[in-house]
Amino acid sequence: MKKLAAGNWKMNGSTAALAEVEALIAAHPAPGCEMLLCPPATLISAMAARATGAALKVGGQDCHAKASGAHTGDLSAAMLLDAGASHVILGHSERRADHGGSSELVRAKAGAALAAGLIAIVCLGETEAERDAGATLAVIGAQLDASLPAGATAATLVIAYEPVWAIGTGRTPTLDQITEVHSFLRARLSGLIGAEAAGTRLLYGGSVKPSNAAEIFALADVDGALVGGASLKAADFGAIVAALSAA
Asked: Has this prediction a pTM greater than 0.85?
């Protein structure tokens, strides 16, 4: 499988920020991994236009479970595809916490994404309280079971483990903790989708930056990263891409 460096711009960026995209493309014309950026919806079309012919894919940050209808402010998976997206992030901890994103809703959205032809990046992760209570694997296992869409394959599904307590805090789990979760996810996936699990990319997300990327990417069952703030700057995200390409 080809590893994946995915960047989540969250609610950041304007048209001027597309200069960073052009710099990233120029610096990494043929990286040894896949590059993906998921900007705010207002920038998807413009970013996709700049990425035409380049080694960069563009994704959305969420989609609705319905194909169309009276859902003011929402975007369907087909709309993201039409704007130039190839992937969509679903079940990010911020959507789960701030927008009532239950695992059952994530499953419905992921099903819609697959039906529209998008690759679904399904996010899982535990809170600090759940980690401290020793419930990490139970929480993540339940999220995976309830979030996985029917018919998912290695070609249409990416799983991102993002410990909620490590996002934006500068804190990072130990390498042993990351290995434990990713190994658990691979085994759990095998029970859910069989042989497809071996080729399904498992991303780590949680304060990934140039200074720690190489050691994280050297771990077993880590097939890339879902990067937050460090994906906003071409130099930082490019360094992570380079580390993943060398892994």
From this structure: yes
